[in-house]
Amino acid sequence: MLQDKEANAAELERTFIAIKPDGVQRGLIAEIISRFERKGFKLVGIKLVVPNKEFAQKHYDDLKERPFFNGLCDFLSSGPVVAMVWEGEGVIKYGRKLIGATDPQKSEPGTIRGDLAVVVGRNIIHGSDGPETAKDEISLWFEPSELVSYSSNAEKWIYGEN
Ligand code: GDP
Ligand code: MG
Q1: What confidence score (pLDDT) does residue 12 get?
Q2: What spacing in Å lies between the alpha carbon of 48 and ligand 1's midpoint?
Q3: Considering the chain, what is the average pLDDT of its residues?
Q4: I want to staple 107 with a disulfide (CB 3.0 to 4.6 A). Which of 2, 99, 100, 137 is the partner?
């Protein structure tokens, strides 16, 4: 059935989300995960990692000319990061909405950064900004075998069956 195919394709949209060292140290792991979970997105990969500086530089490669790049990479590699892959219809774009603007001073209340962070250098969470970066970041942080495909009983209530 075409509808099923469309639904499956939509469910397979995936994004890379990371709780940065400040979010971990501040005890915000569960708070952040719950916002994605309650929305109806599905967690398909998760691990706690301390990236080294070289890895952080790879992750933020597109920002290498920016003046804050070195400090940013030092910070990302300063402690545990919760690396995750979330799946769901529209998860890349909507994930960014849940996260809020890069500068928490400009993030709306109700967003993760708006509610839980104050300055741009400590904005607690990362999320892929588009389909290409999502693909690249997922493959940088995860082996394919670390991602789990499964169906959840909630899906028929989240997406409907017809
Ligand atoms: P994001 O996609 O919303 O995370 O924003 P960017 O990709 O533009 O930047 C990556 C990260 O670099 C941000 O989340 C911030 O932690 C940091 N960053 C961005 N702009 C600035 C800035 O002007 N100053 C500092 N100190 N950090 C910044
Ligand atoms: Mg970005």
Answers
A1: 86
A2: 21
A3: 94
A4: 100
DSSP run (H or E) holding 33: helix 29-39
Q: Exposed, middle or buried by CB within 10 Å (0-12, 13-18, 19+), for 146?
A: middle
The answer to whether residue 126 is catalytic is yes
Which residue's CA is the nearest one to ligand 1's atom 21? 120
The tally of CA atoms less than 13 A away on the side-chain side of residue 55 is: 15
Angle between helices 91-99 and 29-39 (to 10 degrees): 140
pLDDT, tens digit (0-9, with 9 covering 90-100), for 141-151: 999 999 999 99
- Of 81, 17, 22, the residue nearest 55 (C-alpha): 81
Q: Around Cβ 38, how many Cβ atoms within 10 Å?
A: 8
Annotated ligand binding at 96? The verdict is yes
Q: Cα–Cα distance between 121 and 131 in angstroms, integer?
A: 25
Q: Name the DSSP class of 122.
A: G
